[in-house]
Amino acid sequence: MIIKDRVVNSILVYGEKGLGKKTAADYISASLLCEQKNGTPCGVCKSCRMILHKTHPDVIYAEPSGKSGNYKIDTLREIVENSTVLPNEGRYKIYIISDMDNTLVPAQNALLKLIEEPPDHCVIILTASSRSSLLPTIISRVVSLSVHEVSKDSCEKALAKYGYNIDEIKKSIDILGGNIGKCKSYLDGEEIVDAVTITKNITDALISGDEYLILKEFNELAGAKPMTLTVLNLLCEVIRDAMSYHACCDESNLISTYKNGAVRLSEHTSKAKARKIYLVVTKYIDRINSNGNLSLALNSLCSEIKETL
Ligand SMILES: [Zn+2]
Q: Ligand 1 centroid vs 47 CA: distance in angstroms?
């Protein structure tokens, strides 16, 4: 499209966390602004280097300001107003708005105006883990590009470049599949594997409907706020997958780390119930983010989930 000078102004890159959506957004920006203009970033011109170092004045990264990492309506309105200003040096002014998933409908509507009628000099690149978290009116006006896991071999090669121990690399791929970002988090010592395990256990407990088991699994989290938030966010992905599977019975749409669990959850829980649990979990993510007492929050989260079951 760049070579043919038929650039689209609104792009959505979507897929599971860790698959390189932000990297793809930077790559597209560099392709658009590279001085060589041949559709691929040369990597050496001033423009490519500035994008690599995230200092290009015409590539603007929106900053989420909401409690759950979402975009507030004012942030997006400001972008819409700012979009009329011409680029500083490039051919385009590019807005990268990543992780749109938790952005509420009014805020998405504020952005819709820009997506519907973008000035010629503007390109808007959105990223989200799932297309279903965006308004249909936005989806119908963007070109959607999906990101996917790579093969185990490619994942291993990519990770080896960082110099990790090969046995550790293999172990990470066994647990997390060909998701380079998630494997890298694990190899960097982040708690992702524990978080994935606890999320799976909680999902299994929800499927069993056993109140004691649910309480027991949530208790595993007591005292660890970052871990709790990671698990609750992973759990949201699983529940969203369960709702998506309810709607279209298509496993290829699923994005969570526990797809099999999501399918079983959808078989054991009505769509309305899954939605209720999802809303409860997101409510408590906000509450824990805004520094509520963690054990109290986990306690009432459990009892609200029990009520919905
Ligand atoms: Zn270049």
A: 6
pLDDT, average across residues 66-70: 74
The pTM assigned to this predicted structure is: 0.69
Cα 117 to averaged position of ligand 1 atoms, centre (Å): 28
In whole angstroms, what is the distance from residue 224 CA to residue 183 CA?
A: 22
In the chain, the N- to C-terminal Cα span, in Å, equals 50
Which strands, in side-by-side order, build the sheet including 143-146? 59-61, 93-97, 122-128, 10-14, 143-146
The 10s digit of each residue's pLDDT in 204-252 is 999 998 888 888 888 888 778 888 988 998 899 899 999 999 888 888 7
In sequence order, what are the residues at sequence separation of 6 or more whose Cβ sits closer than 8 angstroms to the Cβ of residue 8?
1, 123, 143
CATH numbers and ranges of domains, the chain: 10-146 (3.40.50.300), 191-308 (1.20.272.10)
